[in-house]
Amino acid sequence: MVDSNLEAEVSSETYAKKLKELRELAKVGGGEKRIAAQHEKGKKTARERVEALIDEGTFQEINGMMLNRHTDFGLDKDKIAGDGMVAGFGKINGRRVCVYAQDFTVMGGSFGEVAGQKVARIQDLAMDAGVPIIALNDGGGARIQEGIFSLYAFGEVFYRNVQASGVIPQISVILGPCAGGAVYSPAITDFIVMTQDISYMFITGPEVIKAVTHEVVDAETLGGASAHSSMSGVAHFVGATEEETFAIVKKILEYIPDNNTCAPKQINTTDNPVRADKSLDTIVPADPNQTYNILDVINSVVDRDSFFEVHARFATNAVVGFARMNGESIGLVANQPASMAGVLDINASDKIARFVRFCDAFNIPLLAFTDCPGFMPGTMTEHNGIIRHGAKILYAFAEASVPKISVVTRKAYGGAYIVMGSKHLHADMVFAWPSAEIAVMGADGAVNILYGRELKTLSPEEAKVKRDGLTAEYKEKFSNPYKAAAAGYVDEVILPGETRQRVISALEMFRNKISTTPAKKHGNIPL
Predict the structure, then answer these.
(1) Residue 173 sits in the same domain as residue 209
(2) Is 276 one of the catalytic residues?
(3) Which tens digits make up the pLDDT trace of 313-334?
């Protein structure tokens, strides 16, 4: 009996020792030399990144010992447990999340069959559990040595990205190269966070571009964080360091729910819900040609220090982001008079429409501030599809079933007035400041169209006097919110200082809003 117990104890120790050795091997990935090389580039390893993002002691890895089954090009000679992908679940600030990270120390983080199986598995777990999923990307794209199997792997992940869209939040973090087919998974997700100087994304790299088009460009110029956050709009946020990048991810999670069946968590706030900021009463210049910064309005109305801008560097003529009103998370959309007079162009249209749809998908109420002279005119704009892109805002606001509140601060002209959350797209409450101008167009343009022929028959002196009088008459009639209020298209004209109190009251009123839509598979947004 003693011998039997002793044998069992020795056997148990042997098993434990072997498991510990296998776990240690998996932890070093491609080996100490490659880990050192990663550190020399100023980059963390996949496991270090997971540890930095996830609450200490909460990460539970899955499929950590999977091995690839391929033999071509020597793949059978150096099999590494996990095969370049770390996947599992844990908590961020106490909230459950799923996460996966590419390990650049294993074949440059290339994406093979095993990586695809592991990512697909964690995506399925995230959907089943109803929790956000975060992807940490740092790899060279599809593993060429595995051929069709690496493409299959990407396809399985893409399919699940689409199925998860609008069901659970998906956040992609770019911490190194993300090239070729690898870029499409982040592109489908809700938010992309890049890291300055170490991350880049592109379909085809500098060498391929040089060979095909003879254009010489470096990786940073082609697809670095600066390019994608300000020019292409691919990236929503940029972190100066990996630590700052992870802080951005954690901040995003503060404003969004776990899934589409629940609302974001409401927090306690010390900011008075009936606080009135008198400075707003004079923030809009009397001269309609003078500008002001809509961010000053936003920060005065929302809970103090709660505004978190999204896409801050891209299409700066529009502002979108999260904030809190009396502790409740909201999505905020606004025209920015301080940039291009707040006009709506192609990029601003895409930026607003996508953010509105995200908020609607995840039960986040919408607040819109309108000060827009219209859509950007010009042949270039028309030929690049401003009609199609502008229609996206209209579609997004009309489709949204969350509480929708709009505040017209100044110019609300033509189609731009309609698409920015107007009563005609079934906004729940529309307020207007006394400075609001709601009309088909500005007074000067209207006079040119309405009285152009008559003015041409007059002498220059007479035409000027006549024009000034007609312009003043048009302004008197339309350069105020009272015509719209009289028609019921504005629910109430309010003093700017009253905005916070009125918006919070409206949000409370519509918190349990119920809306119905016609039965359909899905609409056909003008992409």
Answers:
(1) yes
(2) no
(3) 999 999 999 999 999 999 999 9
